[in-house]
Amino acid sequence: MARSLDGLVFVPVADQAPGQVGRQTRFEYHEQDDRVWAEYRGGDVAMGYLVGTRAGRTVDFRYVQLRLDGTTASGHCTSLLTELPDGRLRLEETWTWESQEGSGTSVVEQLPH
């Protein structure tokens, strides 16, 4: 099993569509037992939160965010946790908006220490 996400900061490897997370967004993860949560902000996101569970290398969570334009959005995401050759962690995400139309995939990687 991959190491804990607790205290790690992740950043997307690419920008998404406007109003979503992008390269300026930072995710600060926490993990205790099988529970995972994070705060995120940056880019078009004024503040966001995710909360969910982890089973081995799979993280399953719901997210909600407030955008800079004052709109809110929420959705569901399942991520596969892998380790990069340099030892950093990567989350390969499959997400679906629940508050609006849309779904997709994205990748976030742990920032270097």
Automatic annotation (TrEMBL):
Species: Streptomyces virginiae (Streptomyces cinnamonensis)
Name by which UniProt lists this protein: N-acetylglutamate synthase
